[in-house]
């Protein structure tokens, strides 16, 4: 079930990430303004933002298996339909619908992991599950530029549609909904709205929104930065972006394992945020000096760090929310992240146009700098998690 969840999320990520790797074709060859191309790249994220909480609520009520299968099937239909339309608006609308379908995976597959793995192994399991996002981006970085080399976006959309269609069938066959405690048997304080209990979830959501800014700035504009500003070939740029995403996937697994060992999700999260500040500043400096080797090293390092936080925050949210609210809380978690990602495309695109890539990447480092002091302390989270786990058992 973990393997199928990883494949499903990776397939959905390919669909969501594909428009970002269409930017060189749309901007360089077809002369679309970078702001419009960035907006198209964020279209699937808009669908995610609009539907994540609803999918999470559906998973809380009706279970993970059905939600996964239905959402992925919807994404497949939208991806295939997008190959039949012309024009920015129809294509963007169908990409929004495809993103809405893939949103089902974000909350539902997270509940599968939280439901089937105990706390002492949950960080590693969630790190493996969360590795699918950079893996999906890596696949898109390698495959999409080759598929659209003829000037047509349809092959890339078909590729993503096939992946989510296969994953829908696998989820329907393999996934078993984890057992959840009966609501009637649980104390009222455990079934109450966790957002009214304290500010822990709100703070983690805010931190995650801020930390998603460097992640999407680097993944959305990394390819076009390497090609247009640094003079790299499309093949070399695609390989570097793919390597960065693949290593980022391994990094998520590593920090998940580390969180199990140190008994904390939030202490490693703070380490990641601090490291992200330094990595972004080094990337900006290397790019400004046009040092090819330094650009490669710092971009890979910054990309790995930028994606490392996701599984830590995701697991914390599920543990704090508890079994009765985890679907909606995970939906809210991803809603904030993808809302931030939706702003990154046109916002950072406009910033790049105004001040250039090096200064823009340096300014992106402000986001993790603000996030660091917002990360909650371990003690409050540990006490709450222990209480919820005792009621869960």
TrEMBL record:
Its main location: membrane. Residues 1-380 form the Major facilitator superfamily (MFS) profile domain. The chain crosses the membrane at residues 36-55, 67-85, 91-114, 135-151, 157-179, 200-226, 232-259, 271-302, 355-375. InterPro entries: MFS (IPR011701), MFS-Transporter (IPR052952), MFS_dom (IPR020846), MFS_trans_sf (IPR036259). It is found in: Cell membrane. It is a multi-pass membrane protein. GO terms for cellular component: plasma membrane. Gene3D superfamilies: MFS general substrate transporter like domains. Keywords: Membrane, Transmembrane, Transmembrane helix. One of its GO terms (molecular function) is transmembrane transporter activity. The keyword Mitochondrion does not apply. This is MFS transporter.
């Amino acid at each position: 079930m973990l393997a199928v969840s990883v494949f499903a999320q990776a397939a959905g990520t390919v669909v969501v990430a594909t428009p970002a790797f269409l930017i060189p074709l749309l901007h360089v060859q077809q002369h679309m303004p970078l702001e419009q191309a960035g907006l198209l790249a964020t279209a699937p994220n808009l669908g995610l933002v609009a539907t994540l909480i609803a999918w999470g609520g559906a998973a809380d009520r009706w279970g993970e298996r059905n939600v996964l299968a239905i959402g992925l099937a919807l994404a497949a239909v939208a991806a295939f339909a997008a190959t039949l339309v012309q024009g920015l608006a129809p294509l963007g609308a169908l990409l929004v619908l495809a993103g809405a379908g893939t949103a089902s995976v974000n909350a539902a597959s997270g509940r599968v992991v939280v439901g089937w793995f105990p706390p002492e192994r949950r960080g590693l399991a969630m790190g493996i599950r969360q590795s699918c996002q950079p893996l999906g981006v890596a696949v898109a970085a390698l495959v999409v530029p080759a598929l659209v080399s003829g000037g047509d976006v349809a092959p890339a959309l078909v590729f993503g549609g096939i992946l989510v269609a296969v994953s829908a069938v696998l989820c329907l066959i393999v996934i078993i909904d984890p057992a959840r405690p009966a609501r009637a048997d649980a104390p009222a304080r455990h079934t109450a709205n966790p957002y009214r209990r304290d500010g822990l979830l709100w703070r983690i959501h805010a931190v995650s929104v801020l930390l998603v800014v460097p992640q999407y700035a680097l993944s959305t504009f990394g390819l076009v930065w390497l090609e247009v500003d640094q003079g790299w070939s499309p093949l070399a740029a695609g390989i570097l972006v793919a390597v960065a995403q693949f290593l980022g996937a391994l990094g998520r697994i590593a920090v998940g394992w580390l969180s199990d060992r140190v008994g904390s999700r939030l202490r490693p999260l703070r380490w990641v945020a601090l490291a992200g500040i330094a990595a972004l500043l080094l990337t900006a400096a290397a790019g400004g000096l046009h040092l090819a080797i330094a650009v490669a090293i710092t971009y890979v390092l910054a990309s790995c760090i930028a994606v490392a936080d996701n599984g830590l925050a995701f697991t914390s949210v599920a543990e704090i929310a508890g079994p009765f609210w985890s679907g909606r809380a995970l939906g809210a978690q991803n809603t904030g992240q993808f809302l931030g990602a939706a702003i990154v495309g046109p916002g950072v695109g406009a910033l790049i146009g105004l001040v250039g890539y090096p200064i823009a990447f340096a300014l992106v480092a402000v986001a993790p700098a603000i996030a660091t002091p917002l990360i909650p302390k371990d003690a409050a989270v540990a006490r709450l998690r222990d209480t919820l786990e005792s009621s869960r058992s």
